[in-house]
Amino acid sequence: MKMTSVEKYSKNSSSAVAIPKCLLPSFNLYIDEERYSLINAINSTSYKLQQCGWYYADMTREKAKEILHDKPIGSFILRQSSEAIRNYTISVKTQYGAVVSIRIMSTYKSGRITFHLDCSRKITDRMLEEGCVVDLVQQLITTRTLNVYRFSDNKGHRNISLQLKKPVSLSPVSLKHLCRTQVHKYSQLTLSTPLSIDKLPIPLTLKGYLSDYTNFV
């Protein structure tokens, strides 16, 4: 059976989430507060990245284009940025068929690191931001204000709206994980009041599994 480009890539890549080398602490005794907060933010996000199934820890822009080439509009992957100073990049198939990569930047304020899409400084305060990269991607998928995010590509197309619809997984997700995401999707998008996992009439092991990953993407 012929493997897809995604399967070929996943066969040769590790499932571990790589933390960008520039973010790892040095052996100096002093680490400034902003750098320390950024390291903590990356560490707290790493488990979700391992669980989500659509984070590519080591991938080039060219490989992202190859994987997304024949995928539907709005398909995307999250990958580690090739630029040392940045953390992550979203590569997405646009309405014109091209694959565009958008950096995810980190901002430090009020003692906390948040992540947001790369933009000009004058509109940074108006961007969606989250303390976790997976949470940010979920917000970008579900928010009704996505149409305000527009950009141009290198082929001359301007005023392209950002449409994130469905991530491309490294490999087929397990039925267990799929059920977990569907529970969270129903709870967060359908019910007027989200479910309290602790109050569900299910075994403690299942409560723990649901609590380990609370996103529906």
Automatic annotation (TrEMBL):
A single BP term in Gene Ontology: intracellular signal transduction
Lineage: Eukaryota, Metazoa, Spiralia, Lophotrochozoa, Bryozoa
GO cellular component: phosphatidylinositol 3-kinase complex
Domain SH2 per the UniProt entry, residue ranges: 54-168
Transmembrane annotation, as ranges: none
Organism this protein belongs to: Bugula neritina
UniProt domain SOCS box: residue ranges: 163-213
UniProt keyword annotations, A-Z: Growth regulation, SH2 domain, Signal transduction inhibitor, Ubl conjugation pathway
Classification via PROSITE patterns: SH2, SOCS
Pfam families assigned: SH2, SOCS_box
GO terms for MF: 1-phosphatidylinositol-3-kinase regulator activity
PANTHER family, per the entry: PHOSPHATIDYLINOSITOL 3-KINASE REGULATORY SUBUNIT, SUPPRESSOR OF CYTOKINE SIGNALING 2
Name recorded for this polypeptide: SOCS2
Signal peptide stretch: none
